[in-house]
């Protein structure tokens, strides 16, 4: 199935030379792509490895006369330009180089991330003036896990990781002495929300340098404003660790901005968010600035009964929701393990999908609405991606179709679900069913007919006259996408 996003992966970096040799030899080449600072270079093909390519952004102030921090980005689907755009403003403000691969993936057989990272690394350290003490990695979803794994496997090489939409590659990774600074981001409707909340608690208990921020959204890279916060936080950690010279004026300005942000939240009546922000500011700047103003504000808000009760309720809700997800997963597994498979409608009723959708659409309680959305997101990713991939890989078409039919119960108007149903049917050579599913997808607005030319799932149908006739008619009669 190609009309969905791959989400997990790993990376085993193999530097091609000694660390000092790689970075001290960095220089801007006189030939090659146009490396104009302040301009996104959409694609650079790696010298010596033409199968690998990446997007590049040099900050406006870049010159080869000094060395610069670099952020290597690993997107779960190789969408190299997405992280470039999210981090671009921050890169200009703080003077960071951005490098983002087109070849990174997650949830694939094998490991595409190691060669992608090695190729970016080798190519950029030949072309650019990089500060070897300030090498950072970021990744989305499985790319975030890959970035963490990379940092663990090369202690002392990666100064910090910005993990987006997913936590550590292995939940058993030691956190007492994390060899890098960690800034995590997650949407409040992300199916990995509970994982990131648990990671925050685990890192806090271990005293590991970290910060995890929640934004309004789903499974995605953070918005530019939060990407800027992540870079600013890494700047503070660099000054704390000594890899960047302490600049009192810069620290004071960052502290002033942070306090202003917390004050605005409080003035807007967002007391929970303000409390968390003040507490985070006090922790982030401790040892670098006088944090008494932030600490006193956090303490005063923390003594509020309403905030204390809210935090307790949030913990209880998280525990309840984790248990609910575990229970629903067990119910789904029991249905799938049945010798005689039940109808999708019966399984959907047992999972309570209709009730969750009603709760997610309710305006009564924002926190309960988000809770339902996250539980649905967990069911969605299982039924629309992970389980179908498993069953189609096992040539178990009935079970693949059952879980995709459950995805359709969750999102009945989403044409991607019907596309994936057609994909499963095509891979198991159920031609007529694949055509019916594609027709339904087209009626719901599917217009990516180019995928049918590229997606290997449909290879068995491309030479079929009936399929060719349907595709020609669909292309001719489809209205343009809005």
Describe the 3D structure:
Helix 4 (142-153) links the parallel strand 5 and strand 6. The protein starts with 18 loop residues before the first helix and ends in a 5-residue tail after the last helix. It is 54% helix and 12% strand. It is globular, with a radius of gyration of 24 Å. It has an eight-stranded mixed beta sheet, sandwiched between helices. It has 482 residues and is of the alpha/beta class.
Question: Could you give the distance between the termini?
Answer: 24 Å
The side-by-side strand order for the widest beta sheet comes to 1-2-4-3-5-6-7-8
Q: How much strand?
A: 5-15%
SS class: alpha/beta
Helix content: 40-55%
Low-pLDDT segments, ≥5 res: 1-30
What is the N-to-C succession of helices and strands? Answer: HEEEHEHEHEEHEHHHHHHHHHHHHH
What's the story with the biggest beta sheet? Answer: 8 strands, mixed
Total number of helical segments?
A: 18
The global form is: globular
